[in-house]
Amino acid sequence: MGLALSALAVVLAGVAGWALTLGQADISTAQVWTSAWHHLCAGVSTPAGGWCPANPLSEIQDAIVWSGRAPRVVAAAAVGAGLALCGGVMQALTRNPLADPYLLGVSSGASVGAVLVLVLGLAAALPVAAFVGAVAALVLTLALATGRGGGLSPVRTVLAGVAVAQAGSAVVSFVIFWSSTGDSYREILTWLMGSLGGATWPEALTALGATAVVGTYLAGQARTLDAFTFGDVSAASLGVAVTRTRWVLLGATALLTGLLVSVAGAIGFVGLVVPHAVRLLVGERHHRLLPVAALAGATFLLLTDTASRSLFEPRELPVGILTAVVGAPVFAVLLRRRAAS
Amino acid sequence: MTATSCGVETTLEAPPERIVTIKSSATEMVLALGAGNRLVGTAFADGPVPADLAAAATDVPVLAEKNPSTEAVLELEPDLIYAGWESNLSADGAGERAMFQGLGVATYVSPSACKGPAYRPEKLTFDLVFDEIAEAGRLLGADEAAADLVAEQRAELDSVVRSDAGLTALWYSSGEDVPYVGAGIGAPQMIMDAVGLENVAGEVKDTWTSLGWEAVAEANPDVIVLVDATWNTAEHKRATLERNPVTATLPAVQEERYLVVPFPATEAGVRNVPAVTDLAEQLAELGVTP
User: Fold this and answer.
1) Peptide bond before A314: cis, by omega within 30 degrees of 0?
2) Does the beta-carbon distance from B249 to A123 stay under 8 Å?
3) Hey, how many other C-beta atoms are within 10 angstroms of the C-beta on B153?
4) In chain A, what are the domains?
5) Whole-number Å distance between alpha carbons of A260 and A249
6) Is residue B177 less than 8 Å (CB to CB) from chain A?
7) At B290, is the pLDDT very low, low, confident or very high (cuts 50, 70, 90)?
8) Transmembrane region positions (chain A) (predicted)?
9) Candidate from A26, A63, A191 with C-beta closest to B249
C-alpha cells in the first residue's frame, strides 16, 4: 500500500514537472530546469562558489513559467485531488454511487454566486460569492433532506440535491438569458465549464492548503466512512453517531468544494469518476481509497488541464469540457460493468 | 428589391416604411442612411449611438434591451426587420426568418454576421462593409445616401495615416481566466490591418478566439487594444492585465500602451471606418516605436 502510494506520488510529481515544461511559449525543458535550479538556489542562499546558474529566462518568460504555469500546475493538482476526495466521501455518506459535488447542488450553488458577480461586474468578490453559494446550496440540500427525527436518508439527500441543483441552474440560465450583453456570456461560459487559466499563487496555495487540511481530516475518518457504506443501522451498531457525523463530514466536503469551485470554476466529473475508477483498483476500504483517489484525481486534472491548454494552442479549452469528454465514457463503462456483475 | 443574406432571399415591393432593427450595428446603419424617421422600433443596443448619429436617434422608440419577443415585433407591423446577428432572427431570438417572411415581413441579416460556411465571409474587408452599406441602401430605398456614405468613408479610410512601424497588437475583448481576443478574419483584424497593427492572434482563422495568457505573454504585443463595453469597461480590462502576474511583466502593460475602442464599433458596420481613424490617432499619440 505504502509502495503503491509512493509510486503514485512519483508519477504525479513527474507529470507536474513535465507539465511545467509544456506550453505555447518557446521555452526549452533545459531552460525551465535551469531556471528552477536558479530560483531554488537563490532562495536558499547566495553561495560563494557560484554553483547557482544564472536564470536563462527573460523576465516575461520567467513570469510565464513561475507565475503562469507553476501556480496553474499546483492549482490543477490540488483541485483534482480535492474534488476526488469530496466525491469519494459524498458517495460513502449518501451510499449513492452517483454522488459528487454536482449532485448535492454544491457546484450549482457556487455557480449561482459566481454568475451573479460576473454579470454585476464585481470580479474581485467572485471567490467569496462562489464559496457562499456553495455552502448555501449544501445547507439548503441538507435542510430539505433532513427528516423529522433529524435523520438524513441517502435517497432524500440525493433527491434534495437534484432539486437544489436544478433550481441553481435555472437561476444561472435566467441571469445569462436576461443580462448577458455582447460577449460577456463567454466569460460566464468559461467559468461554468471550469478553467484553471487564471490561477495565481494565492489561489493555488488556497486550494492546496484547503485540500491538505480537509483531506487529512477526511482520511482520518476512513473507518467511519467504511461503516457508512454498510448502511446507517450497521454504522450505528458500530458506535457511529450517524446523523451528527454525516452532517459534519458533508459540511467539510462542502467547505472544500466551495473553495475549489471558487478557484477553478465548476469542473465536472472528477469527483464522480475518479473515486469509482480507484475503487475498481483498490477496493472499497477508505484508508486505501481516499489517498489513492486524491493522488489519482490530482494526476487526472493535471493531465486534462495540460491537454486543454496544449491541444489547440494558441487557443485554450475550458478544462471542464475535457474532464467531461474523458469522464463520460469512463463512467459509461463503469455502469455497464456494474450492470453485468 | 430583392436581397439575399445568409442564404435567405427577401423581397420588398417598395422601400420599407416601418423598420425594426436588432443590434447596434443595424440601428446605426439605418440612422446613417438617413432612414431614422422610418424606424418604428430598435432593440439590443450594445451601447450609445455615436455623437454624429445622436440627433437622428432622439425620437427612435426602443422596443427591447435584448432580443424582443415575436409578438412585440409583429405588433409594430414592420415591413422590414434588420438584424446584426443571425441569432437575432431565430427561435431563441425574435423569431425565425421563414415565419416573418410568411407573414409578409422582410428580414435582412448583416452579411458579415452569417455563420453558415457557404455565406460567412472568408475574411472581412472594408469592401464587404461598403457592399453591405450599398445593399442596405438599396433595401431601404436610400441608394443615394448609401453611395454618399460609402464615398465619404472611403475617403476617410484613404486619409488614415497607416502606421508602418511594424507594431504588434492584442485586441482584448473580454475574459479573465482565458482572454477572448480578436482573431484573423473578423472586424478586429480588418481594423488593425487598416491602422497598421499586426494582430498577435492573426493566425487563428476565426473572427474572435480564446487565447491563453501564456500565448499573450509569449507574443509580447507592442500595444493592447482594449474594447470598452458598458458591461466590461476598458478600465476593468486594464486592471485585469495589471493584476495578472504574467501580463503585469509585459512592457505594453507597464508602459500603459493602450488603445481604446467602443464595443459597438467592433462589429461590421458604419462605425468601423471612424474606429480606424480614432485608433490611428490614439496610436500616433502613444508615440510607440518597436
Assistant:
1) yes
2) no
3) 21
4) 76-340 (1.10.3470.10)
5) 17
6) yes
7) low
8) 73-90, 102-122, 128-146, 158-179, 199-218, 248-277, 317-335
9) A63
